[in-house]
Amino acid sequence: MKFLLKVAFIGLTILYTQLTYAQHIFKGKIVDETTQQPIEYAGVKCSAWGKSTVTDRFGNFQLSLNTDTATLSVSYMGYSVRQIRVTASTKRTIITLSHGPISLAEVQISPGLNNTSFHTLSTLDLNLRPVNSSQDLMRLVPGLFIAQHMGGGKAEQIFIRGFDADHGTDLNVSVDGLPVNMVSHIHGQGYADLHFLIPETVSTFDFGKGPYYTDKGDLTTAGYLNYTTKDALDKSMISLEGGQFNSFRVAGVIDLLSSNAKQNGENAYIAGEYNYTDGAFKLPEHYKRTNLFVKYTKQIGANNKLSLSASTFSTSWVASGEIPERAVASNTIAVDDNGNTIRVPAAPVTINRFGTIDSAQGGRSTRVNAIAKLTTDLKNNWTMENQLYYTHYTFLLHVNSTFFADDAIDGDERQQHEARDMYGYNGRLTKHSYWGNKALTSVFGLSSRFDRTYGTEYSNVTEQYGFLDDISKGDIKQNNTGVFVDETLESGKWLINAGARLDYFNFNFNDTTKTNVIVSPKVNVQYTVNSTIQFYLKAGKGFHSNNAIAVIGNNGLATLPAAYGADLGLNWKPVPHLYVNAALWYLCLQQEFVYTDDGDIAPGGKTKRFGVDLSARYQLTNWLFADLNVNLAKPRLADSLAGHGYLALAPTFTSTGGLDFKLDNGINGGLSYRYMHSRPGNNTNTLVADGYYVTDLKVNYTQKRYEFGLSVENLFNIKWNEFEAEEVSRLRGEAAPVDQMSFTPGTPFFAKLRVALFF
Q: Looking at residue 686, what DSSP letter applies?
């Protein structure tokens, strides 16, 4: 008995000692020295104890160490590394970082939520690669390709992870938590027009691939993409650009408050831009876009931060549209009524590849946004976020991709029009709990979005826009309310994340209602071997909702078809200046949506995709950086035989890469390429969408008060097609419609000059 008491006493003593040591908690917050804004994903490392972590969205971190004093190394891409001595007795240490050289050697692999690796890539690319358009911003995402085929004012076609995601059907896009995707849009489900975003206002962006994120709901099948605008400016700027094809752009970002106001936690700025171009087409595009953005942030006491922003956007354009191959050349490939390939002669009248068949195509669009967000520190490791947003939106498009196939007299001109209001709320409650070396982060979220359209119209019109008849018309009311719970446990080298969300939908079209509910579980496991290598496994269920018109019509389409996916990957630093992210992935979609350019929706059946993603960033010298992204995918109809069931336009092999330079004397820029492999143009692969390889160049000379820049798209002036699609079209003088590929030509050599002033 005495022996057992001694053993128990010794055991309790050891346990007490361990618990005592584990109670030394180091808390801090990392902020930008100039703007005093928090830095998310900053690395915090204590080498003496082999512990590291990253900051959360508020710049906060917490480390548990077996010592009451420690030296921490704090780093973040584009900032100078800082060593700081801290003590556990300090309630919270505020650590400021100043801008410095970019060094991949300072990037550390730490346990963290699953998008930290992608954030490392996005931060590096955003620091190195100059951007001056929303298209530039989207192209920064590894594996994401975009195409424009109906004039510069329409949302881009998106290709990612084996998806032709139309204009956003399978990619959840947001800015500051505001949804960009328009559900039940007349031109396609999830239509994501990002042109209202002024690139100079972007602070960071993050992305995730697959359906693995509990806070992301509808349309998150291939992944999500979120942009965050700056809360504060480090300087004001005015710029002027001009180039070929009567292209010019004026942009400005102006700080509105004094430095004293900033020191008191108050910031405000205004930004604007105006764009114009005629494009490379024979028919001038007359593309105009005007953006205005204003943002105000205020620290209210020690525990609350208020953020208010508003923006307005308007655009109009003339589109040359898509051109059948036979309108440009003879002996092109087409498909006969039996599905066999044939060669067809040139059209009765041929045109230049930058020519126009129907000059009545084009459109206009407007968007007004308002966002209010309050972030509150509730003490005791609780935080709360509440966000309200509002959008008013209009859209008008005239499109004709088949010309006279359906109507040999008046033509196939179609009009799509809608006006809508969108209201929404995003809220989350976060709790951090610590037990010795273990940390648990609990997140509880609630979101609700209501869309209402007025007179959503899809109709046949003449080339003079005279009304012929309605294809569909009516008002849409749609609500999506979602709740989610997310738990992340970090213990030693392991990080385990599990959660689930429940989404409720209410679809109403012309006063007919249908409701549905879907539950989406997620799980993520991460094992960090050391500071140079980390393995992860992701698995989850996601979904994309259907268009309310199709839901009410019940045209064989699932209301909320689910997606099931898994990723197995690693983050690896084999040498200090090389960062590699690689993943094997699989995704099964319950029902693919097939959209025609006219807005028709057809059930595409169950599909499956698997592939490989590889991204590498290498710093060759202190001023020269190399990047490479390779993305392989095999998309197929799930029940098809080998060699059949192709998915039209779904990318199978894409790659981007290049060299970026940033010299101490102010010279910076980069040479980059975009490669899209040829892919099936239809489901039988009898028609093919041609691949392309395009090289772009950007060079800047940047000083404290000014910057001069040169950008060149398609440096080697190659002939390429930005977009291709199978169309059954009929041109004037033809006896019958022809089934073949139509295309929109890619931009030829296009040079622009830029000058900017900083103050």
A: S
Whether the CB-CB separation of 296 and 308 falls below 8 Å is answered with yes
Helix (H) or strand (E) holding 488: strand 476-491
Measure the CA–CA gap between 439 and 552, rounded to whole angstroms: 47
Count of H-run helices and E-run strands, the chain: 5, 48
If we measure between CA atoms, which residue out of 85, 88, 101, 93 comes closest to residue 61?
93
pLDDT digits (tens, 9 = 90+) for 175-193: 999 999 999 999 999 999 9
Cβ–Cβ < 8 Å for 483, 445: yes
Distances in Å between the Cα of 1 and the Cα atoms of 9, 11, 171, 735 are 12, 15, 67, 104
Alpha-carbon distances of 205 from 126, 170, 172, rounded to whole Å: 8, 18, 13
The residue behind tokens 């204003």 is 294
Give the integer Cα–Cα distance in Å for 240 and 756: 6
Per-residue pLDDT, averaged over 463-480, amounts to 93
Contact of 389 with 311, CB cutoff 8 Å = no
Question: Is 519's pLDDT higher than 70?
Answer: yes
Whole-angstrom CA distances from 377 to 58, 367, 386, 445, 580 are 10, 33, 12, 16, 36
Yes or no: say if 192 and 167 are a contact pair by the CB < 8 Å rule: yes
Answer yes or no: is pLDDT of 12 > 60: no
* Residue (of 363, 462, 454) closest to 416 by Cα position: 363
Average pLDDT, integer, range 492-515: 95
Mean pLDDT of 214-219: 96
How far is 356 from 516, CA to CA, in rounded Å? 44
Count Cβ atoms within 10 A of the Cβ of residue 574 and give its class: 0-12 exposed, 13-18 middle, 19 or more buried.
exposed
Per-residue pLDDT at 589: 94
Q: Is 22 helix (H, G, I), strand (E, B) or coil?
A: helix
Which residue reads 């910031």 in tokens? 267
DSSP state of 410: T
Alpha helices in 195-347 (DSSP H): 259-263
For residues 517 and 62, what is the distance between their CA atoms, to the nearest angstrom?
A: 38
The neighbour count for residue 175, using CB atoms within 10 Å, is: 23
* Structural tokens at position 372: 């209010």
- What is the C-alpha separation between 125 and 137, in angstroms, rounded? 10
pLDDT level of residue 100 (50, 70, 90 thresholds)? confident
Q: 11: exposed, middle or buried (C-beta count within 10 Å: 0-12, 13-18, 19+)?
A: exposed
Beta strands (DSSP E) in 705-749 are 706-713, 721-729, 738-745
* Contact criterion met (CB below 8 Å) for 69 and 59: no
For residues 260-293, b (16+ Cβ closer than 10 Å) or e, as one string? eebeebbbbbbbbbebbbebbbebebebbbebbb
CA–CA gap between residue 685 and residue 732 (Å, rounded): 28
C-beta of residue 235 within 8 angstroms of C-beta of residue 271:
no
DSSP, collapsed to helix, strand or coil, labels residue 563 as: strand
Tokens of 749: 């050599």
**Distance between CA atoms of residues 56 and 113, nearest Å:** 10
Using DSSP, state whether 369 is helix, strand or coil. strand
What confidence tier does 43 reach under pLDDT thresholds 50, 70, 90? confident
Q: Which of 331, 438, 454, 510 is CA-nearest to residue 63?
A: 438
Query: What pLDDT shows up at residue 21?
Result: 46
Amino acid at 25: I
Quick check: helix, strand or coil at residue 17?
helix
Lowest mean pLDDT segment, chosen from 118-122, 278-282, 658-662, 741-745? 118-122
Q: Is the pLDDT of residue 116 over 70?
A: no
Tens digit of each residue's pLDDT (9 = 90 or more) over 190-212: 999 999 999 999 998 989 999 99
| φ, ψ dihedrals at 548, nearest 5° | -60, -35
What is the C-alpha to C-alpha distance for residues 97 and 59, in angstroms, rounded to an integer? 12
